[in-house]
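Question: Hello, beginner here. Any chance you could explain the protein record under this note? Any guidance would be welcome.
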Amino acid sequence: MRLHSVHTVRTHRSAEDFPRDEHLAWKIAQVAADPVEVDEDVREMVVNRIIDDAAVAAASFARRPVAAARAQARVRPYSPGGSVWGVHGRFAPEWAAWANGVAVRELDFHDTFLAAEYSHPGDNIPPILAACQHAGASGADLVRGIATGYEIQIDLARGMCLHEHKIDHVAHLGPSVAAGIGAALRLDPEVIYQAIGQALHTTTATRQSRKGAISSWKAYAPAYAGKAAIEAVDRAMRGEGAPAPIWEGEDGVIARLLGGPDAVYEIPLPAPGAPQRAILDSYTKEHSAEYQAQAIIDLAFRLRGRIGDLSRIATVTLHTSHHTHTVIGTGANDPQKFDPHASRETLDHSVMYIFAVALQDGTWHHERSYSPERAQRPDTVELWRKVATAEDPEWTRRYHAPDPAEKAFGARAEITLDSGETIVDELAVADAHPQGARPFGRSEYVAKFRSLADGVVAPDEQDRFLGAVDTVADLPPGQLHRLGFTVTDEAEARVPAIPEGLL
């Protein structure tokens, strides 16, 4: 049995005979509706990623953007509804997904998959979880839905580049969430197909959210996509349709937003009856920063001892991939990436800042490494402005390599000292990567949760939550609320006051 089928996707004129069973949205709906069993190692990784999402949600609990999103959910109590991490009660599922999605994304600290397009497939978990909680689904249903959400987003990211056309990567997330919810709730393929089309149509946006002066919308964008996907599923279940063919239409996404009428994309999807295993190709973060900075942080740690006195540094050039150079490097041409007063969202997309701080501190922290005091230190600013990136074709080739053993997201650092001496070192993948020096397993995910939840979630509540997640595949229908958690009074007291909104 073939594990994957590769589907050629292109624009079709309205006058062409293009049957619906050839539409990409229909093929994705067929994958979501396929009653294939979830492999054991995939179930285990789903547990890991629920823990991972919850960890970063706990760490971001008191941050202003997260508190604002949570405030929007709290005014919408609903039964049965979904849980909001850190809060007692049940809330409208789309708003529970919104609040939890912002919490997961705020610190740029959860999992990633990089190929033709970027993705953070852990963004699928909050909306699929909220929909399953509201629908009274079982733990096995949830696991199935999350596996499908990961599969579809990752498969789209393998074959369809969005960022070269300045479309944000959440355009792959809306369809994947719709498919994941459809899989979890075992919806008819017709319903899933219409929901995918609506979700894509309502979640395509430009990459300005990750350019220039980056705001809190960077965290809100995937949460919005998840919320929109839940609403799309709701409408489709009520019999409403979507623009079609959404990708391939004469005025569809490919023709007008991506490569144009002549573009061709090759999208791999699981063959009928094949397991959905894409989650195993994704990887989480040990450090709270853009994924392409993970290996560079580890490289900076390794270089500290070889350099000694950092004031001797004259220049630093990070030779890296096109993606790293143009998104978080000097190739982005964003002066904000060198601004000591820039937002945290901008700093975690400046590999120049990240390399300088990692080199100076030898450690990385999701709050301290980005504090205004840390960013504005004169010696940091001086070193930061000596760092530049350069695209290297070999690193770009390895970034896109299909062989996991060759695929790389790192860089080669060339450091010139004031004496003229040059120090060179490179690192292909982060230490925590599956191919890295210290790959993450269950114990590392649990340790990450306990570290980030410390002082936010009481130890006994941590134990209860981890126990529930560990047995998620066995939770009966109606018990998925056990995957929520509450926070301490002290954590609640640290939440900033949020002004009243309109609603």
Summary: The mean pLDDT is 96. Residues 160 and 272 are 22 Å apart (CA to CA). The two ends are 53 Å apart (CA to CA).
